[in-house]
Amino acid sequence: MIMNSAAELARDGLEFTSGVERATADVYARVKDVIPEIEWQFFAPYIHAINQLKREKNAIILAHNYMTPEIYHGVADICGDSLALAREAAKADAEIIVQASVHFMAETAKLMNPDKTVLIPDMSAGCSLSESITGADVRLLKEHFPGVPVVTYVNTSAEVKAETDICCTSSNALQVVESLGTDKVLFLPDHYLAANVARQTSVKVLTWRGRCMVHEQFSAKDIREYREANPGVIVLAHPECPPDVLDEADYAGSTAGMIGYVHKAQPAKVVMITECSMSDNVAVELPNVKFIRPCNLCPHMKKITLPKILRSLREMKHEVKIDPQIAPRARLAIERMLALGTPSSGAQWQGGVGTGGKAEIVGAPRELVSA
Ligand code: SF4
User: Fold this and answer.
1) Which protein residue has the closest C-alpha to ligand 1 atom 8?
2) Mean pLDDT score across all residues of the chain
């Protein structure tokens, strides 16, 4: 074990004992192909301690699909994409919800189940999309486009959701846009997701300049190079990627849609064009599928670690609170989305360019004021 890891274990009063090894043997049997034994000696004491503490404190851990395998397979009670985690948060009956993901998802959990204590292990786990827009920006847009309904991606703060008519996720964005029955929508803040929706609908889509710092890095050229280097590979892409990336893919869908696709089709070789921890997590469940792993990591998701989860539960930090002035309006936007039900598994993104048009980026607030 490397020295830093030993010091961190000692700091938390933990040790890799034979008892810990036995208690975590079933988890290690699952993840041994993606976690080296030397690293397991560090992870196992945390997994053992966290699972004990969850039982003592009546806590559950909701983990996003982008968590690393030791979290996803070792301590998470429920794993999923942001839509699934929002639904699970709403029906959780544990006293404490630890959100193993980023801040806007922890806010969503608190909005959906306000009587529970919601903890996030690292308060600085943000999101480039969420940080691209504020409530004041949305208020200016609404002034500039009176009567145009506002759809916001769940990757936004509670303050932004409170200014919104309805939320969406990458699983249901098209369904949400078409549910409104209008000829125009403001779709905020993800430019690429908006562009991918616009191609599939006749509704005019006005959008913002937000981008996911992970998915915007992929290009159509990358996909062609993966295919050249790995003949026969099946390419799955997330709709936060640029539209020309989706054009090169065999399938596009949310993280849950991609996982569902691989489980069903079980291709010999696959590349998931998204955050790379997800491939490790699915590879554990499908040892016969060869995963080509593009290594784009989300620096925000990677702030969540086992030591931080343990300290979060031990010290009851960092509790997520939402201003009561905005919480009811933000909750309503999420509830309207959930009331639409679950769309058919990711089918919305298939078929390349649809019958729709282009998403039009609207100006920054200062430009809007002077327009
Ligand atoms: S992967 Fe992209 S959208 Fe998801 S949390 Fe990270 S920056 Fe935000």
Assistant:
1) 127
2) 92
Cα-to-centroid distance, 256 and ligand 1 (Å): 15
73 pLDDT more than 60: yes
Domains of the chain: 2-128+300-315 (3.40.50.10800), 138-211+353-370 (3.40.50.10800), 215-292 (3.40.50.10800)
Cβ 91 vs Cβ 80: under 8 Å: no
CA 299 – ligand 1 centroid, Å: 8
Integer Cα distance of 247 and 151 in angstroms: 24
Mean pLDDT of the region 174-187: 96
Q: Which protein residue has the closest C-alpha to ligand 1 atom 7? A: 127
Amino acid occupying residue 328: P
Closest ligand 1 atom, CA of 274? Answer: 1
Is residue 20's pLDDT more than 80? yes
SS3 content of the chain, % helix, strand, coil (to 5): 45, 15, 40
**What's the residue count for the chain?**
371
For ligand 1, atom 6, which residue shows the shortest CA distance?
Answer: 298
- With a cut of 70, say whether residue 371 has pLDDT above it: no
**pLDDT at residue 368 greater than cutoff 80:** no
Q: pLDDT of 238-258, one tens digit each?
A: 999 999 999 999 999 999 999
Ligand 1 closest atom vs CA 190: 3
- Give pTM, 2 decimals: 0.92
Around ligand 1, the residues with Cβ closer than 6 Å are 102, 127-129, 155, 212-214, 275, 298, 300-301
The residues facing 186 across adjacent strands are 150, 206
CA distances from 340 to 87, 196, 206, 328, 329 (A): 12, 20, 22, 19, 18
Residue 366: predicted pLDDT: 45
Ligand 1: centre distance to CA 129 (Å): 7
Tokens of 264: 């069903």
b vs e for 330-357, b when ≥16 Cβ sit within 10 Å of the residue's Cβ? Answer: bbbbbebbeeeeebeebebbeeeebebe
Cβ neighbors of 174 (< 8 A, separation 6 or more) are: 197, 200, 201, 343, 348, 349
Structure-token pair, residue 354? 């649809």
